[in-house]
């Protein structure tokens, strides 16, 4: 087939197809992340969540998307029409463009840039324009305040996030996403175990980056209605939402690549084989996990009240068994060329999923930070901590290289201990009460 | 005098703007104003310079209606004022008219009234906690609180047929005898409840985000509270250990042992702690009361047609929101000449301006929440 | 304690049965109980019955002359018009013109530090139709007191906002509902009714079905709210 494609465009074919697939599939994926969030929220709040539209509410995102598409397009009076149209587009475009450098496994990547990480972070920051322009063009007090707050928050936490990423980059030695994962494979350890504080800083900053609770003041219903999104309805609002969930997946992808070993399975350096076979023991994990889920679903089948739901659960169990079979199949010779790709994609998705799950979990557990407390947390706790982190990690690397220190575990423990001490000291400083605001006297 | 205390948020301040000030209007439709309350804020960036509350959206002329109904006919109307804690309103009104008549409810009625009123206090505080937490951003406690409140409302429904606007009491005592499993239901609820309160405390009390949002916010000193007429948990959180149930006992409160929680700083966090502890103390009163409900009649002999002798009386109770008082004037006919309701939410809301000055807009939502207002009572 | 069925008020001369229930005119040597009630020993030897006996004397206002009232009288003389005890609650009728001074004295010297309620009652047949009522409470003494003042229709009443800031909204409500003007109030305007409403709803001559139809038509665009 390849002789049919002119050589000039041959290198672009696969990436373009991947890009089209991504743009087509991602909105659906974001919709299902929203459904997952609603179901999780319901579970933590002792209720059921969407149950009506489709079995267990699985068609809810489709119904929501359809509803949003047919909604009336309301533009506030006095709004800057061009900016009003363009602002959500900017947010979404930047979020989706950032996906182009994101590796979903050793094989699935649209563009393997040698400055992949920098590209993703930079493009993600451009999404802030979408927020600010949206808030400003809405011609409303609430929107403007929300947009400015949001922008200030994002900019502050970008700094902390970037510095946290630097500490992992020091260990990886390259900005290319593939190389970073490769470095983790070579060193045989996920970077989270080497710079856990860096991961923690990145985790907190990424929640603030994506405007999620407890840092979601700009979108908080009870405070400013919906901040910069107040005047957006229908599909324009859906675009902003899509951008937010895309950002969530992107920061999850970055965190996974840098700290959680990307597409590597747990203990990538352990090559223990099942006795007498060429299979590595840990490669059987995906199949076992899917089988476990299938068994769990089967055990729930008798408890379902309605026949349709019984069939549905059985169907889900069957799908899991199928996936387990696929995972196991790629271990065997005719198919093990695909092993790296398939297993890699599975582990990557699993880690991103876990990270996103934690985002959702945190949302329903904590109250919201007030804006000044949020800024204080970013500037006076996270940024100093991240700076010190970079210094300490660099010092540790220099020591290891120059004095040929052979005990990485000890150095990890020491650096983590130092960082914890600094963190506690900073927290103490921050906890000191501010001078109480003087009530303004009427004059 | 332009002291913030006496000015009370005069609009003279909100209409004269300085260079950097804006006026922001919150409500009357707003997810956090707990009803139809409109607050005009004068802001300097994020700081609140002054507030002006505009109320009256839910004014229904309850006091005027009272003059055109007989005493018994008016009793269901009082439930609609503080609709979150209807049983307390009924208790206050029935006891006021009983004082006007010179009658008194029999001991059994008094004890059952106490139990139902304390259950209602727990229900009211649960609703307050859920909505207050929701305003501050904690999305989960509201569902747990409503789950508990549901149990209490089921008890009310079994007792008098209604969950919200209960009209549970009659002038002179009770109309309905308690149903068979009343004591078991109340006991079961009380036994489950302390674990649940501990659950809410785990979610919120030590949570540093919660503490950061509520500590030091909306401080009201004891002197200010007394001067502004603030009563109830707000006054107790400001440090004054005073509760009408102990100072001037009514119903059967003098028979039971319970503590009065107080706070130290008069901020939102203290009010939260006071109300949490009040829920526990209410549970304690309920448990003591159901041990020993006296037997006997549930209704005093007041006759069908109530014609109190001419005169006037003021009687107040410790409602969940504060001191709920009724001032009734009788001219000797079957209809009251005047019924004035002293609404705790109305008077506590006056303190909003004092508490909100100098705070940030995000704090304002917390301060309105901590005042625990019900617009039905503010506006009547 | 508030509810004490065995308390018996010694029967003084029966009050004039005025339909409006105006307080009993002062009789000398009223032997009523002091403001904090104490159970009096019943004169009859009948054992107390469990239910309050229907034959107990119905509650009615009686004149009051205890130490509190005497202190007030010593300080203000004629401004203290009358003192009554009704349903065991002390009521002092004062001259409206002196209301501010009397309030200040009550708060500072008599320690009635909380203004519990400020309201009014309309007696249209009387020359001075409004009763302005101040319910006070003393935290240190755990005592209640009611101050009452008569005010005519267009007669301004001194405002007590500078003494008890709680009076701010309470006086606005009185103005809104009755039309009583409080002199010295920083911002006397309607609080519950719309600002442009005509009429004062709680007055007895304001029919319960009456509305400011002009306002309704203009602001709600309907003919009438009924």
Shape of chain B: globular
| Biggest sheet details of chain A | none
Low-confidence stretches of chain A: 439-443
Instruction: Please state the structural category of chain B.
Output: alpha+beta
What's the CATH topology name of the largest domain in chain B? Cytochrome-c3 Hydrogenase, chain B
Mean pLDDT of chain A: 83
Oligomer: heterotrimer
Task: Give the helices and strands of chain A as they follow along the chain.
Answer: HHHHHHHHHHHHHH
Fraction in helix of chain A: 55-70%
Calculate Rg of chain A over CA atoms.
Answer: 24 Å
The total beta strand count of chain A reads: 0
Number of helices of chain A: 14
β-strand number of chain B: 8
**Helical stretch tally of chain B:** 17
Structural class of chain A: mainly alpha
Structural key phrases:
heterotrimer, A: 443 residues, mainly alpha, 14 helices, disordered C terminus, C: 226 residues, alpha/beta, Beta Polymerase, domain 2, elongated
Describe this structure in words.
The complex is a heterotrimer of chains A (443), B (380) and C (226). The radius of gyration of chain A is 24 Å and the shape is globular. Chain A starts with 9 loop residues before the first helix and ends in a 12-residue tail after the last helix. Chain A has helices spanning 10-44, 60-69, 81-98, 116-137, 141-172, 177-187, 196-209, 221-224, 234-259, 285-300, 307-329, 339-365, 371-402, 408-431. Chain A has 2 domains: 13-70; 74-270 and 361-431, no CATH class. In chain A, 38% of the residues are buried. Helices cover 66% and strands 0% of the residues of chain A. With 380 residues, chain B is α+β, with helices and mostly antiparallel strands. In chain B, 49% of the residues lie in helices and 13% in strands. Chain B is built from 17 helices and 8 strands. Chain B has a 3-stranded antiparallel beta sheet. A 3-stranded antiparallel beta sheet of chain B has the order 6-7-8. In chain B, helix 6 (107-136) runs antiparallel to helix 13 (268-291). The longest helix of chain B has 30 residues, at 107-136. Chain C has 226 residues and is of the alpha/beta class. In chain C, 18% of the residues lie in helices and 20% in strands. Chain C has helices at 67-76, 99-108, 167-178, 213-220; strands spanning 62-63, 80-86, 89-94, 114-122, 130-138, 143-151, 157-158, 182-183. In chain C, strands 1-2-3-6-5-4 form a 6-stranded mixed beta sheet. In chain C, strands 7-8 form a two-stranded parallel ribbon. The longest helix of chain C is centred in the C-terminal third of the chain and has 12 residues, at 167-178. Chain C is elongated, with a radius of gyration of 21 Å. The N and C termini of chain C lie far apart (46 Å). The chains are: A mainly alpha (443), B alpha+beta (380), C alpha/beta (226). Chains in contact: A-B, B-C. Chains B and C meet through helix 1, helix 3, helix 5, strand 6 and strand 7 of B and strand 4 and helix 3 of C.
């Amino acid at each position: 087939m390849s002789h049919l494609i002119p050589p000039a465009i041959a290198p672009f074919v696969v990436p373009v197809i991947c890009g089209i697939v991504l743009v087509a599939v991602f909105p659906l994926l974001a919709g299902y992340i929203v459904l997952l969030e609603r179901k999780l929220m319901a579970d933590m709040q002792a209720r059921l969540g969407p149950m009506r539209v489709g079995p267990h509410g699985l068609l809810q995102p489709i119904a929501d998307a359809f509803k949003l598409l047919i909604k009336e397009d309301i533009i506030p009076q006095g709004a800057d029409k061009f900016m009003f149209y363009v602002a959500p587009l900017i947010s979404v475009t930047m979020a989706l463009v950032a996906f182009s450098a994101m590796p979903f496994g050793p094989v699935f990547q649209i563009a393997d840039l040698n400055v992949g990480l920098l590209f993703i972070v930079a493009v993600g920051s451009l999404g802030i324009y979408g927020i600010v322009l949206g808030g400003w063009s809405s011609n409303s007090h609430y929107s403007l305040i929300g947009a400015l707050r949001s922008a200030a928050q994002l900019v502050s936490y970008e700094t902390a996030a970037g510095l946290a990423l630097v500490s992992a980059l020091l260990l990886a030695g390259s900005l290319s996403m593939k190389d970073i994962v490769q470095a983790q494979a070579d060193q045989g350890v996920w970077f989270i175990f080497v710079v856990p504080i860096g991961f923690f800083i990145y985790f907190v900053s990424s929640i603030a980056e994506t405007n999620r609770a407890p840092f979601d003041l700009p979108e908080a219903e009870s405070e400013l209605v919906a901040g910069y999104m107040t005047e957006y309805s229908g599909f324009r609002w859906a675009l902003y939402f899509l951008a937010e969930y895309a950002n969530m997946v992107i920061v999850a992808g970055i965190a996974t690549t840098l700290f959680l070993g990307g597409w590597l399975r747990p203990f990538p350096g352990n090559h223990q084989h099942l006795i007498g076979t060429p299979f590595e023991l840990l490669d059987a994990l995906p199949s076992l996990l899917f089988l476990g889920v299938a068994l769990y679903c089967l055990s729930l089948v008798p408890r379902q009240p309605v026949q349709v739901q019984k069939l549905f659960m059985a169907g889900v169990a069957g799908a899991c068994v199928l996936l387990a079979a696929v995972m196991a199949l790629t271990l065997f010779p005719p198919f093990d060329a695909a092993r790296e790709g398939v297993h890699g994609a599975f582990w990557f998705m699993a880690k991103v999923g876990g990270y996103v799950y934690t985002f959702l979990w945190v949302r329903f557990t904590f109250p919201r930070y007030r804006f000044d407390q949020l800024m204080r947390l970013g500037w006076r706790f996270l940024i100093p901590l991240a700076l010190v982190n970079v210094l300490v990690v660099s010092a540790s690397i220099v020591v290891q290289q120059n004095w040929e220190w052979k005990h990485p575990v000890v150095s990890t423990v020491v650096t983590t201990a130092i960082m914890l001490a600094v963190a506690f000291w900073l927290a103490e400083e921050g906890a000191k009460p501010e001078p109480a605001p003087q009530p303004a006297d009427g004059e | 005098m332009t002291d913030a205390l006496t000015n009370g948020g005069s609009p003279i301040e909100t209409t004269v703007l300085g260079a950097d000030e804006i006026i922001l209007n919150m409500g009357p439709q707003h997810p956090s104003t707990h009803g139809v309350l409109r607050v005009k804020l004068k802001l300097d960036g994020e700081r609140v310079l002054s507030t002006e509350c505009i109320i009256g959206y839910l004014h229904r002329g309850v006091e005027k209606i009272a003059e055109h109904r007989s005493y018994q006919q008016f009793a269901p109307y009082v439930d609609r004022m503080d609709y979150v804690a209807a049983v307390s309103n009924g208790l206050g009104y029935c006891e006021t008219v009983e004082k006007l008549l010179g009658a008194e409810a029999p001991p059994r009625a008094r004890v059952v009234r106490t139990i139902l009123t304390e259950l209602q206090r727990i229900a009211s505080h649960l609703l307050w906690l859920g909505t207050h937490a929701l305003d501050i951003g904690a999305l989960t406690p509201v569902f747990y609180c409503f789950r508990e409140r549901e149990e209490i409302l089921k008890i009310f429904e079994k007792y008098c047929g209604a969950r919200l606007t209960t009209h549970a009491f009659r002038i002179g005592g009770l109309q309905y005898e308690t149903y068979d499993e009343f004591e078991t239901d109340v006991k079961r609820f009380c036994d489950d409840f302390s674990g649940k309160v501990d659950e809410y405390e785990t979610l919120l009390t030590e949570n540093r985000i919660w503490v950061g949002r509520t500590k030091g916010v909306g401080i009201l000193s004891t002197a200010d509270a007394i001067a502004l007429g603030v009563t109830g948990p707000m006054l107790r959180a400001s440090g004054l250990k005073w509760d009408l149930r102990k100072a001037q006992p009514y119903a059967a409160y003098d028979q039971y042992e319970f503590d009065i929680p107080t706070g130290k700083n008069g901020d939102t966090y203290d009010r939260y702690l006071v109300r949490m502890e009040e829920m526990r103390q209410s549970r304690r009163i309920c448990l003591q009361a159901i041990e020993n409900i006296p037997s006997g009649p549930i209704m005093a002999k007041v006759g069908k047609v109530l014609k109190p002798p001419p005169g006037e009386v003021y009687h107040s109770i410790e409602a969940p929101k504060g001191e709920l008082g009724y001032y009734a004037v009788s001219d000797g006919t079957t209809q009251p000449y005047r019924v004035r309701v002293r609404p705790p939410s109305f008077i506590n809301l006056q303190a909003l301006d004092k508490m909100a000055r100098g705070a940030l807009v995000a704090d304002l939502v917390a301060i309105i929440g901590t005042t625990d207002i019900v617009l039905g009572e503010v506006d009547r | 304690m508030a509810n004490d069925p065995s308390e018996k008020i010694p029967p003084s001369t029966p009050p004039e049965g005025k339909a409006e229930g105006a307080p009993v005119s002062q009789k000398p040597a009223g032997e009523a109980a002091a403001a904090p009630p104490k159970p009096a020993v019943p004169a009859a030897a009948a054992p107390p019955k469990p239910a309050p006996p229907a034959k107990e004397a119905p509650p009615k206002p009686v004149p009051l002359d205890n130490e509190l009232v005497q202190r007030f009288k010593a300080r203000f003389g004629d401004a203290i018009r009358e003192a009554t005890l009704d349903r065991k609650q002390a009521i002092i009728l004062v001259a409206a013109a002196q209301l501010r001074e009397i309030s200040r004295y009550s708060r500072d010297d008599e320690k009635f530090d909380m203004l519990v309620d400020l309201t009014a009652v309309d007696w249209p047949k009387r020359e001075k139709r409004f009763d302005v009522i101040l319910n006070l409470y003393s935290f240190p003494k755990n005592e209640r007191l009611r101050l009452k003042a008569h005010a005519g229709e267009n007669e301004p009443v001194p405002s007590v906002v500078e003494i008890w800031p709680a009076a701010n909204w309470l006086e606005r409500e009185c103005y809104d509902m009755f039309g009583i003007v409080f002199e010295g109030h920083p911002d006397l305007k309607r609080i519950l009714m719309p600002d442009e409403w005509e009429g004062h709803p709680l007055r007895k001559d304001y029919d319960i079905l009456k509305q400011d139809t002009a306002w309704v038509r203009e602001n709600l665009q309907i003919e009438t709210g009924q």
